[in-house]
Write a structure and sequence with these properties.
The chain is mostly beta strands. It has one helix at about 40-45, and strands at about 5-15, 20-25, 30-35, 55-60, 75-80, 95-100, 100-110, 115-120, 130-139. The protein is built from 1 helix and 9 strands.
Length: about 140
């Protein structure tokens, strides 16, 4: 049975809005330590008490996944502050760093003078559906 400190390997398929977003198929099981905060809270809560070989399909609400979309994580920046700004288009992913921290953002709007960047996690505000199968549990 999975409990705090268990080293767990599980196969998964993540579906969001009816579309597969990620899967361990072809890559092998995902490995994590239960209770160490290495996977999203809602999924960790579901896996607790599962046993080797168990399969389950669960929906994780946004609040226990990547959280809500935060308006303060959406920033307008001057075009000249971004390298190669003239080559960007809406939907592009850009990287930024601040005081040693690296961030990724999605370009959501481009005007003559500014680019709007969304620093929210791409799955923020989304409910996630996971199909999971426990492949290995080590105490």
């Amino acid at each position: 049975m999975i409990k705090k400190g268990s080293k767990v390997k599980f196969d998964y398929t993540l579906t969001v809005d009816g579309k597969v977003q990620d899967t361990s198929a072809g890559r092998g099981p995902l490995e994590y330590t239960h209770g160490a905060g290495q996977i999203i809270q809602g999924l960790e809560e579901v896996l607790e008490q599962m046993n080797l070989g168990d399969k389950k399909t669960v929906e994780i609400k946004a609040e226990k996944a990547y959280g809500p979309v935060l308006q303060e994580a959406i920033k307008r920046v001057p075009k000249e502050a971004i390298m190669n700004a003239d080559q960007l288009k809406v939907g592009d992913m850009v990287g930024a760093s601040n005081e040693g921290h690296t961030f990724r953002a999605v370009v959501t709007e481009i005007t003559d003078k500014e680019i709007t960047l969304d620093f929210n996690h791409p799955l923020a505000g989304k409910d996630l559906t996971f199909e999971v199968e426990i492949k290995e549990i080590n105490e």
